[in-house]
Specification:
alpha/beta; Rossmann fold
């Protein structure tokens, strides 16, 4: 199935929340998180970053942002690490499956979460929409941005540099996706809303495969 782009989201974020779960070796070698922070600073976008190595640390990072949501802070979440179609690859411990990630989002203020876009800078990041299979209807994030295939560190940085530059310019999400793919000359970035994902499931009577 061809993934749809998110409907335009009318919200002003207070900051970008970053959860970096790369192995220390990759974090030091490629510096993707540091490059992203430099990029956000250059575009005058506020940010908060937390690093983790295992599912306990990841859960604590989500809890931190859940507390921010309950303060009324609106934000997008940027996840940096390794992934596959079944979940996120933690440096310490097994893959964190989508259903294991969902409880962290249940702690968010549902009104804030409904405006949140997850930008997954990892292989098969678009599959993060499957987290919403384990969230209540009124407690789902707005949607996800991410690749539907493996992606390298340099490619991930280039994608994000284009996303945040265009976002800082006030470009709408649909247009960002379209323009990023146009500049790459190929379909690399996809977007999928929780509503669109679950509407398809209801109509088809089966689980949607976003890749």
């Amino acid at each position: 199935m061809t993934s749809t782009t998110p409907a335009d989201l009318d919200v002003t974020y207070d900051f970008v929340g970053i959860i970096d779960f790369l192995p220390d070796r990759d974090r030091k070698t490629y510096g993707l998180g540091d490059k992203l922070v430099t990029l956000l600073n250059r575009n005058r976008v506020a940010w908060q970053q937390l690093n983790c190595l295992n599912k306990q640390g990841f859960a604590q990072a989500l809890l931190h942002f859940a507390k921010e949501s309950k303060k009324g802070k609106a934000f997008g979440l940027q996840l940096i690490g390794h992934g596959d179609s079944s979940g996120l690859v933690m440096p310490e411990g097994p893959i964190m499956a989508w259903h294991n990630i969902a409880p962290g989002f249940r702690a968010f203020d549902p009104n804030i979460l409904s405006q949140c876009i997850l930008n997954l800078s990892c292989c098969f990041g678009l599959n993060g929409i499957k987290i919403t299979d384990h969230l209540p209807d009124a407690g789902r994030f707005f949607g996800v941005l991410g690749p539907s295939r493996p992606i390298g560190f340099d490619e991930a940085y280039k994608v994000n540099s284009k996303i945040y530059r265009k976002w800082a310019e006030g470009m709408k999400f649909n247009d960002i996706i379209r323009e990023v793919n146009k500049e790459f000359g190929k379909q690399i970035l996809y977007g999928l809303t929780s509503q669109g994902y679950h509407t398809f499931k209801v109509k088809s009577g089966k689980s949607q495969k976003p890749v």
